[in-house]
Amino acid sequence: MTTGNGIQPGEVDPAVMAELGRLRDSIDNIDAAVVHMLAERFKCTQQVGRLKAAHTLPPADPAREASQIARLRSLAEDAKLDPAFAEKLLGFIISEVIRHHEQIAGATKS
């Protein structure tokens, strides 16, 4: 049996496999941290949504969103991360936040 790249099991240097395992463990830890950070972020944005709904503020704030996108693009550049990727990611998060805010506002009106 061969792997997807044509290498037979046991042909790879054990040190390479150990390093691959170490890197994958780090990736797994980072992924877990990202999920937990997003969960915390959404807890905060849910509170923002309830505050907006209680004071009949609109679910979206285009000026704030534009400011955040510019800020995140700058942070991405500093971190050597593709700013376009960072903007897409934040855009996805913002659209989900707005959806939550709309749901909260709708529930408040009922």
In brief, what are we looking at here?
With 110 residues, the chain is mainly alpha-helical. The protein has helices at 14-54, 62-78, 83-109.
List keywords for this structure.
mainly alpha; 77% helix; elongated; 110 residues
Architecture overview:
- By secondary structure, the protein is mostly helical.
- The protein contains 3 helices and no strands.
- Helix 1 packs parallel to helix 3 and helix 2 packs antiparallel against helix 3.
- The longest helix is centred in the first third of the chain and has 41 residues.
CA(first)-CA(last) distance: 61 Å
- How many helices does DSSP assign? 3
Poorly predicted spans: none
Mean pLDDT, all residues:
92
- SSE run: HHH
What helical percentage do the residues reach? over 70%
Radius of gyration, whole Å: 21 Å
Would you count the extended β strands for me? 0
List the helices and strands and how they pair.
Elements: H1 14-54, H2 62-78, H3 83-109
Helix pairs in contact: 1-3, 2-3
